[in-house]
Protein: HTH cro/C1-type domain-containing protein
Amino acid sequence: MVTSATIRGMPGGLRETRTAAGLTQMQLAERLLAAIRAAGEDWGPTRAENLQGQIARWETGRSAPSARWWPYLRALLPDLADRDTPLVESKMTRRDFLAGAFAITALSASAATARSLGLVASSALAPTRTLGSAELADFQDRVRSAAKRYASGIPQWIEAEAVNLLAEGMSCLPNAGARRADVAVATAWAGLLAGRLAFFDRGDPATGDAHLATAAALAQNGGDAPLLAAVFAHRAFVAGFGGDSRGAAAWLRRSDVTAPRRGQPLLRSWLHCTRAELAARVGERDTAAKEIRSAADGMSRAGDVPEWFDWYDESRFESFAGSVALSVGKHTQAIDRLAVALEGITSVKQQAVVAFDLALAYGNDAPELAIEHAIEALTLVRERQYLTALDRLPALEGALAGTSWAKELRRRERELLAAG
Structure:
């Protein structure tokens, strides 16, 4: 745990690390504020002079940085000692064990968060290079190629590739000239990809949100309102899945205000699905049902589809609708919609999610069908690791608890996932 005594007078302390980096307190304050604002955050001192005084208090031991400051401090001072993580008893959860069965080794959340935020913080200091039209096209193609491998690649590898593309894109921004918006948007796409991989695939919300904060700053810089709205909605998912319903609602409001009112019906439809799923998670059944109806209306309209918006279509709408129906206890409706979704979805990862949801929908009334779909889901997860799908297992085990089918489910887990 960080205390004022550990901030000063020790190797890796704030004063020593800042001095070694050649920064004055004012320079550190200016860069911290720039990083926070670029990440879309709104907290802390608003003037560098005020923050300089706070840094002085940290360095003299009169106070200590709160947890939210540390990713930004490490972003600017990578050699700063890691003293903000309390010593806690190591306890491996069953979910951790299942993740380990696939070698889904999470990156250090603090280090990866600092890296993503640090890209924003240090972009103005990075060596710059001018991007010609051919180089821009090559960069965009590499971002596009990474995005296409989202469904089939190893999450950590694709995420690392996306973060490297983030760094490359931002090193080009200062001298991009007339191509600045194009560079910013392509780089924001890389940030969104990294955020989705960290959050949905690896189950690392802190790192995922950091990548998304970087993507938001870049999408805003590039003037791409639809992309910015999509990033905000992903940040709502991170907050909502973490139990922060107020935070999720705030990000959804920002997404709604940002999204174009015309010309993007599919994006609007997906935003309605996002609100529906988050509402269902907190028991707001009427709101969830209303949002699904609005999403269905958007599916019936023609309009532009941005290239980066590759995760939503008619089948994905049905999977959202089925998941919401399941959340509010309408199992028959959920089965109908999820069956349609499973028929049309081509992504192995999403097929696994829908198969687990179908298993849960059948859990109470037709456990033999629940096991059938659970086996399908487990087989798919074995083929393509995806922690969002594995997160369905505890609920399914709970639905089958006390029945002979529970033992069968556990046997199949051991067989297909090599989990004890």
In short: Residues 4-65 form one domain. The longest helix spans residues 180-201. Residues 1-11, 83-92, 97-112 have pLDDT under 50 and may be disordered.
